[in-house]
Write a structure and sequence with these properties.
With about 300 residues, the chain is of the alpha+beta class. The chain folds into 3 domains: about 80 residues, Rossmann fold; about 70 residues, ATP-grasp fold, A domain (Dna Ligase, domain 1); about 100 residues, D-amino Acid Aminotransferase, Chain A, domain 1. It is about 35% helix and about 20% strand. It is built from 10 helices and 11 strands. The chain is globular and about 60 Å long.
Length: about 300
Amino acid sequence: MEKIAVLMGGTSNEREVSLVSGKNVKEALESLGKYDVVGVVLNEDNLSALPEGIDKCYITLHGGWGESGGVQASLDALKIPYTGSGAAASKVTMDKIATKKLLDEANIPNAPWAVVTEKSAPCPLAFPCVVKPPMDGSSVGISCVKNAEEWPKALALALDTDEAYRKKMNIPGSPQALVEDFIPGREMTVGVFNDEVFPVIEICAPNGWYGYEEKYVSNETTYPFPNDDFLPEMQRYARESFRATGCRGLARVDFRVTNEGKMYVLELNTSPGMTGHSLAPKAAAKMGIGFEELCDRILGVAKYD
């Protein structure tokens, strides 16, 4: 049997979520009875905990070194196949500014945006707007700014979060904050597995804000499958975003949609969660693909660059 290492944990803000994802994937792969599965909890940004004789790695790391190309580059060097996107695509999609540049080049609609680097800078966009650190995950450091009074605190939070992330990850350059127009309306997400597009899921969060609490803790957030006429177009944009950023394996593309049906890509997630709250498994189940089969399919296309 192939020896599979399920990589989980890590040092990012999403460590606890990753541990749940990893546990679920490990149990799913074990239940298939055709793999020798070992769970590998990473406590550092390296592969020192990886056992000898591993044939493939299933990455359930979220954020940080595990999703920004670090673990992918390390596995490339070891020539060990792994799940998900390669190092280059992982690095690009973790950087929201780099992602938006590629989306603009591909004429894929996304929210109007600007970059701010100084805490004393005025807001470059009209209110309301969204301020976020460009390279962290799970809605950490993100604020919805409704007026000028809220701007300084939100900007400082985003810049401080980005500065801490850069120091932790040894990324050169001054801290940045990404500022985007707030798109009123609905939030939706689309999973893409290689070139197969999953059903669209709508995210209905309390008070219309899908932050960390609403993602991972609250049981009030609901995830219906909508039936709007624009869904095929959204799925097309999801596939185009997947291709434009060079993704492979499973990724998730998040959207905001106005009440008039105009859609905007928010970001891509190259290591979607595999918890009870996670969306890609829900969409796969809608297609008749159970959790164990989904994990098996993801592992089946593992490769290294």
